[in-house]
Automatic annotation (TrEMBL), chain A:
One of its GO terms (cellular component) is cytoplasm. This is Dynein axonemal assembly factor 10. It comes from Ceutorhynchus assimilis. It comes from the Eukaryota. InterPro entries: WD40/YVTN_repeat-like_dom_sf (IPR015943), WD40_repeat_dom_sf (IPR036322), WD40_rpt (IPR001680).
UniProtKB/TrEMBL annotation, chain B:
This is Sperm-associated antigen 1. It comes from Ceutorhynchus assimilis (cabbage seed weevil). It is found in: Cytoplasm. The lineage of its organism: Eukaryota, Metazoa, Ecdysozoa, Arthropoda, Hexapoda. Gene3D superfamilies: Tetratricopeptide repeat domain. It comes from the Eukaryota.
Amino acid sequence: MENLAKPQIICHNQKSLDYAIHDVKWIPCSAKFVAIGGKSNGAGIVETYQLSADGIEKLDEFCKKDHFKCCTFEASSLRNRHLATGDFSGRLQLWDLEDTLTPVYKTTVHTAVINSIDGVAGQSANCGAPEIVTGSRDGCVMVWDVRQKDIPVAKFTPLEGQAGRDCWCVAFGNSYNDTERIVAAGYDNGDVKLFDLKTMSVRWTKCLKNGIVDLQFDRKDIPMNKLVATTLESKFFCFDVRTQHPKKGFAHLIENAHASTIWQVKHLPQNREIFMTTGGGGSLCLWKYTYPPKRVEKDSEGIQYGIMGELHQIQNSGLSDQPITAFDWCVDKLGLAVCSAYDQTLRVLITTKLNLC
Amino acid sequence: MSTIEDLQNIEEYQQNVYINHARGESLMEKYGIPIQHYEFDYVAKAKDAEELEKMTLVLRSGQEGYFPDLLRAIEDKLQRLKPESKLLKYSTPVLRKQDLLQNDRNEINQDLRQWVTDMSKNSRELDKRKTNKIQCDVKIRQTELQHKPVTVTTPKSTTRIASTDFQAWDRYDPDAELLKQELEEEKMKIEAKKAEKASEKLRKEAEQFVYAGTSSQSCFVMAGLDRKPKKSVSFNQHSTETEAAYLSDRELEKGREFYVAGDYELALKCFTQSILSKPQVININNRALTHLKLGHFKEALEDTNKVLALDEGNLKANLRKAQALEGLKEYENALIQVERVIKTDPDNDIAQELASKLRKVCKNTFQSKNTKMRVFDVI
């Protein structure tokens, strides 16, 4: 009985490929997705797939010089749907998938591999200019506006003369009007930093003592609400970033899962309280956050501080025996997702009954 | 399980015992549960889920030996007492399509096929209108980053005075330091108050936005929140139907989340945005509900009327209209409205409750107005 009410993860289709897949993303407003990665001869590859009821078929592919590491569609409009990619040599490129000879936009400011990329405001209105943020091994986090050539619109660099820490993940958030915007960045030494783009300052920083593999706000275009950060050694942190206490900072809770590195955290686009984490053992965990009766309390001096709710694990499934390194929910269809693992296999997943929980 | 496997397990567990004894305290000693409790009769009668959880941990650790049946009994009991226990979460393999029942499989396939066709149509529409231009009225971010890059690592400024450094201690003035600390705390408080005010302002703005949205025509979109209702409007924001529907859906989802989390003002803003992109029964209905929650009965009534104009038989809208009328103290109209709902859906608890409440109120007002008239209950 219990099993019937619980969301089930179903592997709809899978396909083995002949290259290392680094990232997968749905093309918004379509039944297509892209897989990017690199071949054994060092070339980077982008492939487009079409989903049908019976399987997945390859539509298109193109190869470039360097391995592609990460990609996003979120900074371009629905009518353009340009793919922004970061590659192993530190180039940020923007591709028109129908004309891939030369990129629409490109920069070469980063000096090492771009580990992570995120976009904002491409498909939603009233939340500022479309921007792309990149985090790289050279320790820099840069924010780009495609209308401005060669120079980033914002740049967060390590102190001069110091070797920066490897930035593993970046994410946008708090972009609820034209001016406010925050970039969250996670580093290999366990630092999580929130950069405020409006005031150009470091808003908050905390060391979680373990490399931050991935982080994500529950939604980008609302006043920032929750932030989830996953770490190398089977722990992830969930912060309530609504209320910041000057001494205590943000309230948070820690959860143990996967018994290995947690590679990805991805919030369900249709419901921000539900998110999926993917593990190094090839497992998938689905979580649901419930708010406490009162989210904000006041301390003895009348200063507000946040209170955490609870996290419930609603599903724990084994999919592969290799780390699942990329995962993406489909924005247009509840429960549809695509993921890739180190076993060089693409999988299309369907999660049922998500509307019931 | 075969006997050989059992034997292997026992051996493994025994090895474990040695390892753990070397470390000292065993789990059983740590939890302090008496040995008498590790017994089927006790487990059958047990009521304390926490103790059972601990016993499960002890048995799973294998420090006391290998008792598969007892462990199973405890787990079964735990399942009954505390089904949400973390210890009972097992990893299940992802289902393959072949594992599903034929019916479910067909349903999923059907659903997916339909979705793929719809999506492909939308996608083609978007492709036709491809511009390759970036339309955005927000300016490019301006920062003087060339002069002053924000550094990621902040240098440590506070140096501790060594306990042997007497000269430094002589220079140290505790009163001044205390004062400094107090000032800092004061500053912190002010900052916190500021943040609090900012979040309140956000709510207010969200609410104001709604009024701006409802009063203006639906094709006008207020350009920015922080600007006062200046007539800086962008006309016909979405050139394709698909884009409008997409945005409308996204805002609807956002609104629902806010509603569930209890942020009604922000929910209202999202629903309004959604309606501005594309008016649909579902988003207007949701906004009506949010208006009700916030006590804006007039707006709620307007919204329900809009829904009913689109879809006359909409049960939720009818019920919400009744609630709005009740809020506006038009009890008779509310009663008529709610009875209409009950006629179509007699099992609706909210409607029944509202109806009985309204009947009472109506009776009272009736009696107070015309004391001489005899009142017959309307059934």
